[in-house]
Amino acid sequence: MNMFSTTSTSTSTSTPADILRLPLFRVDGNDTTGAILQEHMYGAILQERMYNELPAKLSINALLSLYGSSFFKILTEDLSYFKCYQFNDNLPVKQFTYAGIINSLLTKGSNMTVMQILGKVAEALVVKFCKTSQETNRHCLATALHMEIYEISLKEVNNCKAIGTGLKSTKLNYPNIYCPQHPQLDIAWINLKNNKLICRIADAEDNENFSVLSSADIIGLQIKTSMDGKKNVLDNILNDVYQVPIIYFGVKDDCSKIEEKIYEHKLLLEKSGQPIPPHLLDTRYIIRPIQEINHYCYDEFMADYELLKALQEHRISVEDFVFNCAKSVNLEKSILSFSLPEDPGHISIEDNGCVIREDNNHILL
Q1: E strands within the chain?
Q2: CA gap 246, 153 in Å, rounded
């Protein structure tokens, strides 16, 4: 049954702060003079963290050190864009191959490919931060339910798990919810008490076929990523295309421009004597920038964007990208081999004592 009520009386503001591992940097001009990981209370003011200048001002090496591990886990575990194979259980030998969309990124260099990958990455990031941050999960749920955050109790939040409907990890763990072609829903929630999809009406929750359920029945969100929200998102909002609220990842931080255009549209309707459509009456639940919910999530999104651009523009090779990400997840002592679509040519690079050399059609480290 529906576990949420708009008449909730929980107004507690004494939420236990989430503990996150957050990056702390000092940036002088374009140089990064330090990069360390420390534990901080969620929402604390980090005086040395000039996040408005980051991650664009960080070097590729700094981005890989701080975000490479998380990014690579998303690309492998959630999206299967890279795959790893274990040849021998007694030896730490792994082979990495990459999907066609990564090959397209490397060969065609299209911004459309970058944004296509980022859209899935953003979906995985929302799921990740909902899992690691109780307050993020609470904010996302409140947005999906068109409710204020204080109307959702912590007990209710703890019983809800965010699921990315288009993630390969969902296909593995929740195959009945996996639906990458769903036109509306990117994020849904399951009730941890029974592992059923959380819907607005009890009858819908008993339906095992997620793909045939109406978006209006399911408590969910749509994730949008864009370099130009006015061009790619605004018209669909005005025309009531989206049936669920949007969490917006703007590469150029332009969500406020979308909101301004919605406001201008409403003013024009009022001046002309036309009624304002119901879906535009309360703009709080139409679109929300991810920065309002968790700006660390946005920082990680932008770091992933910078790394994808570096791959697209060949400022880092796919071999170096995977090798450095692997180092970030403590695989630096492993012997890694990368299966490449074409002969990579002769490679001999020394990196902290490791020699990268060619061996037939694989790269050995």
Answers
A1: 19-28, 31-41, 82-86, 93-98, 160-164, 187-191, 196-197, 220-226, 246-250, 287-289, 335-339, 348-351, 354-359, 362-364
A2: 22
What tokens does 7 get?
């008449």
Q: Are 90 and 74 in contact (CB under 8 A)?
A: no
Q: Which carries the bigger pLDDT value, residue 327 or residue 83?
A: 83
* 201 token code pair: 């009406």
Q: What is the pLDDT of residues 185-204, one digit of tens each?
A: 999 999 998 888 888 765 55
Residues 18 and 135: beta-carbon distance below 8 Å: yes
Does 344 sit behind a cis peptide bond, omega within 30 degrees of 0 on the bond before it? no
Q: How far is CA 140 from CA 6, 80, 112, 233, 234, in A?
A: 16, 25, 27, 20, 21
Query: What is the DSSP code (8-state) at residue 199?
Result: B
Cβ atoms of residues 210 and 180 within 8 Å: no
> Are residues 152 and 10 in contact, defined by beta-carbon separation less than 8 angstroms?
yes
β-strand 348-351 against 354-359: which pairing, if any? antiparallel
Q: For the chain, how many helices (H) and strands (E)?
A: 13, 14
Quote the CA–CA distance of 310 and 314 in Å, as a whole number: 6
Sign of CA dihedral 191, 194, 200, 206: positive
Q: How many CB atoms lie within 10 A of CB 261?
A: 17
Report the C-alpha gap between 365 and 362 in whole angstroms. Answer: 10
Q: Tokens in use for 181?
A: 């072609």
Helix axes of 100-107 and 295-312: crossing angle, nearest 10 degrees: 60
Q: Which residues contact 181 (CB under 8 A, 6 or more apart)?
A: none
Alpha carbons 4 and 198: distance in angstroms, whole number: 9
From CA 168, how far away is CA 210, in angstroms rounded? 16
CA distance 289 to 249: 6
Element (H, E) at 257: helix 255-271
The average pLDDT across 58-65 equals 87
pTM score over 0.85: no
Q: Provide the pairing of β-strand 31-41 with 19-28.
A: antiparallel
